[in-house]
């Protein structure tokens, strides 16, 4: 399987993910096509933290192939979380994954309309319903970054910047409050971590499916 990128697509991929990633991408696509029996690739020209392809799998039907960029290790939590949720709790199903190199083969959600396209009253109702069921007890919480660690990282960044003393003070207060709550409530659940209107997609039944978890404890 060979996918013929246009010169502009190759340049955009290089600009967003670097030359090394761009050079390796055709080889990786060929490998996944053989390994996961994929064909009929359509490149989605959306450049964020990954390259996206709609494709057809002989094993799973219509799918989305997600290949993470050079900083994909930050997104290992997403791979592990989707594998752990296993299509439960309203999450998209991950059929195949390559944690070592950063890739996911996901079910394709059709029509895939984002929740934020709905009227405000519908958005609130759907989000509240989805949120109630969007958490689970992880098999191993140590595999994921905690909210406390995330807050501490953010506070540390602000503390190193001397230009905004008020922001430094507030960031430390944020860390103290988070630590207090973390100690007070002992239950540890695996959460999405970035649940908003772009990460809820409408399916063929009119329900909404959760995608792109940041995976936080």
Protein architecture, described:
The protein is of the alpha+beta class and 217 residues long. The chain has a domain at 7-110: Phosphorylase Kinase, domain 1 (2-Layer Sandwich). Helix content is 39%, strand content 18%. The chain has 6 helices and 7 strands. The chain has helices at 7-17, 19-36, 76-85, 120-132, 147-159, 165-184; strands at residues 38-44, 50-57, 61-68, 94-98, 103-107, 200-202, 208-210. Strands 1-2-3-5-4 form a 5-stranded antiparallel beta sheet. Strand 2 and strand 3 form a beta hairpin. Helix 1 (7-17) packs across helix 2 (19-36) and helix 5 (147-159) runs antiparallel to helix 6 (165-184). It is globular and about 55 Å long. The N and C termini lie far apart (40 Å). The mean pLDDT is 92.
